[in-house]
Design goal:
By secondary structure, the protein is of the alpha+beta class. The protein has two domains: 136 residues, Beta Polymerase, domain 2; 196 residues, Orthogonal Bundle (cca-adding enzyme, domain 2). 50% of the residues lie in helices and 10% in strands. A hairpin with a 5-residue loop joins strand 6 and strand 7. The protein is elongated, with a radius of gyration of 29 Å. GO terms for molecular function: ATP binding; poly(A) RNA polymerase activity; RNA binding. This is Poly(A) polymerase I. Belongs to the tRNA nucleotidyltransferase/poly(A) polymerase family. It catalyses: RNA(n) + ATP = RNA(n)-3'-adenine ribonucleotide + diphosphate.
């Protein structure tokens, strides 16, 4: 880009992380070239974004995000009645772009020409002081994009810094604005929050600042009712396991994460339906549909994940019913492993489920012959058979004497 005569700087998280001694996961570039000009320069590039157009440039497996300098808040822009920016394709200068960013520590530019750091907002001073500070008027910036409150929590957990007092107070004051964000966008932000490697700490911060209740209201309403490991102990154990898997570079499925976050509302709804006379498995299926239907009004859960989440839940009662051919049918279920892992998580959280967890652990590794022995040793499931009603005989017709 420099060779083509454009300005270009590394900016944002990659510069911040390098200065803090972390290895950046990705690199962002800011430039005075328009998205169309950038796209024309690189064959392996793609224009993306609606509110603000970006260009993704591919180098091998790496994707570098290139954004055109944006104008400051004073420039013409489209906002809704809440002050939230709806359209943001207003281009500006390097300095204008700096003042348009969210936090001072994310407004540092690395100039590859002379290897210098360009800082217009005091980001270096805040970085040295260990502060996360919002750029500009706190209320205005949070109203423009309430997701900045979620980003603040993510940076707190990830970087080990602290919030500037005004930046922090603003989250307490304006947490409810999160409800104005489209559910689909909150799904993306939720994944960033809980798959950052510090899920447990991030969750505590969301609860502390009153944000979690606007993301997952059904679960938030039950968090204070801790009993027998539910819901907080179980949820925190799930988040701890998530962090361990990420640290070990193992895959984490969002479906399992959502299953853990929403398990307590589903469990209680299932019990309520059973109290009203519905059998356990149909009750679990109905509760799963209802809870997910209510949740996606706040945080969207794409079907590719919600269907797996439902399977994890509905496998729970099936994993406890192992007699006869049931164990084999359950073992062949496509999502058996996820359901089994969830059962193990429940046992880790204190629920008396160690026996079935150990049984399934052994059952998976045994030969077909030994599996049959294990099933036979369970005995037949006790059931109360309804007595057959005897067919009442029709009374014989009385013979009448003919006179």
């Amino acid at each position: 880009m420099k060779e083509a005569g454009y300005e270009a700087y590394l900016v944002g998280g990659c510069v911040r992380d390098l200065l803090l001694g972390y290895e950046p996961k990705d690199f962002d570039v800011a430039t005075n070239a328009s998205p169309e000009q950038v796209h024309k320069l690189f064959k392996r590039s793609q224009l993306i974004g609606r509110r603000f157009k970006l260009v993704h440039v591919r180098f091998g497996r790496e994707v570098i995000e290139v954004a055109t300098f944006r104008a400051p808040p004073e420039a013409k822009q489209h906002v809704d009645t809440q002050g939230r920016i709806m359209q943001d394709n207003v281009y500006g200068t390097l300095e204008q772009d700096a003042w348009r960013r969210d936090f001072t520590i994310n407004a540092l530019y690395y100039n590859i020409k002379d290897f210098s750091i360009i800082d217009y907002t005091g980001g270096m001073a805040d970085l040295n002081a260990g502060l996360i500070r919002l750029i500009g008027d706190v209320e205005t910036r949070y109203r423009e994009d309430p997701v900045r409150m979620l980003r603040a929590c993510r940076f707190l957990a990830k970087l080990g810094l602290k919030l500037d007092k005004q930046t922090e107070q603003g989250i307490f004051d304006w947490a409810h604005l999160i409800r104005d964000i489209p559910p689909a966008r909150l799904f993306d932000e939720t994944l960033k929050l809980y798959l950052s490697g510090q899920a447990g700490m991030t969750h505590d911060l969301l609860c502390h600042y009153g944000l979690f209740e606007h993301l997952y209201p059904q679960t938030a309403a039950l968090l204070h009712e801790e009993q027998d490991g539910y819901p907080r102990t179980m949820l925190m154990k799930a988040l701890e396991n998530t962090d361990i898997r990420i640290a070990a570079d193992k895959p984490v499925t969002p479906a399992f994460l959502f299953a853990a976050i929403l398990w307590e509302p589903v469990r209680q709804r299932t019990l309520l339906l059973m109290t009203n006379g519905m059998p356990e498995i149909p009750a679990m299926q109905r509760a799963s549909s209802e809870i997910i239907g209510e949740q996606i009004q706040r945080v969207a859960i794409p079907k590719r994940y919600s269907l797996v989440t439902r399977d994890i839940w509905t496998l729970q009662p099936r994993l406890l019913k192992r007699q006869g051919k049931r164990a084999y049918r359950t073992l062949l279920h496509p999502k058996f492993r996820a359901g089994y892992d969830f059962l193990a998580l429940r046992a880790e959280s204190g629920e008396p489920l160690n026996e079935p967890v150990d049984w399934w652990t052994k059952f998976q590794a045994e030969t077909a012959t030994q599996q049959q022995v294990m099933v036979d040793s369970l005995g037949k499931e006790s059931s109360v058979k309804k007595p057959r009603r005897r067919r009442r005989r029709r009374p014989a017709a009385k013979k009448t004497e003919q006179n």
